[in-house]
């Protein structure tokens, strides 16, 4: 374990002021990036996806709960253990409720509802969870990977590109997707992120980035 060097208060203040200038530059860059993200075009979602949840079978527009926007976390289902991925659970543990600003939040997994319901209850999560089992939803949004069902493309790279980079893809992957709903219940896909693109949802990482030890590597 490497700890920081020891300095006087004056030396620390000088170093901190220099770092603050870098932090402000990064903050400005992130603001500009977020603006470009908001300006992305959106794609119609004509498919009639049906999910299973605590209230029975629902369509994608119903997941918005009357709101304009919907954020979906794609929870990996570990078929060999018949439960959700612990890493995904850690992400979801930090999400208490919908974020507001006319936006709903839900977790969706390909795990069957009869197992997913107990998993959701055991974690005590307040946000809704749905099963996409039996639908093409996970494959269409590239978090369930099976070349016999849909072309494998994770994090905007093909299976071949991942293989050339020395990365082995499992059958299930995590992700986050964002949707927009018009007044007539027409739904549009606006954004998806995978791999490290999920990190903005992990509040613990933001906290640990403030510390000398930092986040897990």
Short overview:
This protein is an alpha+beta fold and 217 residues long. The chain is 30% helix and 23% strand. A 6-stranded mixed β-sheet has the order 1-12-11-4-7-8. Strands 2-3 form a two-stranded antiparallel sheet.
What does this structure look like?
The chain is an alpha+beta fold. The chain folds into 2 domains: 9-38; 47-204, Glutaredoxin. Helices cover 30% and strands 23% of the residues. The protein is built from 6 helices and 12 strands. The strands form 4 sheets. The chain has a 6-stranded mixed beta sheet with strand order 1-12-11-4-7-8. A hairpin with a 5-residue loop joins strand 11 (175-181) and strand 12 (187-194). It is globular and about 65 Å long. The two termini are 13 Å apart.
The average pLDDT value, as a whole number, equals: 93
- Order of helix and strand elements from N to C terminus: HEEEEEEHEHEHEEHEEH
Main-sheet strand order equals 1-12-11-4-7-8
Strand runs, count = 12
What proportion strand?
A: 15-25%
How is the topology of this model organized?
Elements: H1 9-38, E1 43-44, E2 50-53, E3 56-59, E4 69-75, E5 77-78, E6 83-84, H2 86-93, E7 103-109, H3 113-123, E8 129-131, H4 137-140, E9 153-154, E10 157-158, H5 159-164, E11 175-181, E12 187-194, H6 203-208
Parallel strand pairs: 4-7, 7-8
Antiparallel strand pairs: 1-12, 2-3, 4-11, 5-6, 9-10, 11-12
């Amino acid at each position: 374990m490497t700890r920081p060097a020891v300095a006087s208060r004056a030396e620390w203040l000088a170093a901190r002021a220099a770092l603050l200038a870098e932090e402000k530059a990064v903050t400005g860059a992130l603001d500009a990036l977020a603006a470009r993200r908001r300006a992305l075009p959106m794609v119609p979602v004509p498919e009639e996806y049906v999910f299973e949840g605590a209230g029975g079978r629902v369509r994608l527009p119903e997941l918005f709960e009357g709101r304009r926007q919907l954020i979906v976390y794609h929870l990996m289902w570990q078929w060999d253990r018949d439960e959700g991925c612990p890493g995904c659970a850690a992400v979801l543990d930090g999400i208490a409720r919908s974020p507001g600003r006319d936006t709903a939040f839900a977790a969706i997994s390909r795990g069957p509802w009869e197992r997913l319901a107990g998993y959701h209850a055991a974690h005590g999560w307040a946000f809704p969870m749905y099963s996409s089992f039996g639908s093409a939803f996970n494959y269409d949004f590239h978090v369930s990977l099976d070349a016999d069902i849909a072309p494998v493309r994770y994090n905007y790279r093909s299976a071949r590109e991942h293989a050339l980079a020395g990365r082995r893809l499992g059958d299930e992957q995590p992700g986050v997707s964002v949707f927009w709903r018009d007044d007539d219940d027409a739904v549009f896909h606006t954004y998806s992120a995978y791999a490290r693109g999920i990190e903005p949802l992990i509040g613990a990482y933001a906290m640990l980035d403030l510390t000398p030890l930092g986040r897990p590597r």
